[in-house]
């Protein structure tokens, strides 16, 4: 796992094309352009600019040159909050191997020790048991449920909300 680079756009586009049907129930409806190298290059550039200003970290999980997962620490707020959001997915052919759990565990350690954050938050669709297991295994606790929280798969859907406090 490492920070995405501009040169990763082809691999990221290929990963999204490969996982389009698999990710559809868990993500917003995407325009066709989303699955292109051009779109992914622009997205990586935007996220790297956000990283430069301290607002987030775009990470890719790799198997050789192929991207097999995407993890984003985003919306970093400093000051008295010291918090960020976490989003992620793993390639359909790599699920069930503990990759997401391991990656989220590393991100939690990095957020605490490297970024100096106090907390991370994440949300899952209420029926996404796999992602909930990943979060709980990494130490996240459910803190609530948000009705109609995000528009996913073309519908406003309820989400379970999770957080991990990184410093006691």
UniProtKB/TrEMBL annotation:
SUPFAM superfamilies: Acyl-CoA N-acyltransferases (Nat). Residues 18-167 form the N-acetyltransferase domain. The keyword Acyltransferase applies. InterPro entries: Acyl_CoA_acyltransferase, GNAT_dom, N-acetyltransferase. Keywords: Acyltransferase, Transferase. Belongs to the acetyltransferase family. RimJ subfamily. PANTHER family: [RIBOSOMAL PROTEIN US5]-ALANINE N-ACETYLTRANSFERASE, GNAT FAMILY, PUTATIVE (AFU_ORTHOLOGUE AFUA_3G00765)-RELATED-RELATED. This is GNAT family N-acetyltransferase.
């Amino acid at each position: 796992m490492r920070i995405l680079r501009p040169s990763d756009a082809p691999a990221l586009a290929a990963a999204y094309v490969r996982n389009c049907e698999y990710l559809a129930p868990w993500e917003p409806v995407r325009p066709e352009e989303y699955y292109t190298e051009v779109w992914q290059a622009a997205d990586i550039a935007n996220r790297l600019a956000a990283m430069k200003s301290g607002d987030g970290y775009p990470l890719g999980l790799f198997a050789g040159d192929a991207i097999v997962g995407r993890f984003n620490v985003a919306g970093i707020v400093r000051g008295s909050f010291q918090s960020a959001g976490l989003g992620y997915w793993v390639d359909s052919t790599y699920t069930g191997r503990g990759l997401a759990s391991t990656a989220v565990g590393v991100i939690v350690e990095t957020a605490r020790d490297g970024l100096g954050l106090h907390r991370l938050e994440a949300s899952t669709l209420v029926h996404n048991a796999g992602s909930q297991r990943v979060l709980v295994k990494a130490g996240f606790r459910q803190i609530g449920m948000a009705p109609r929280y995000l528009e996913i798969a073309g519908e406003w859907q309820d989400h379970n909300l999770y957080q991990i406090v990184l410093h006691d």
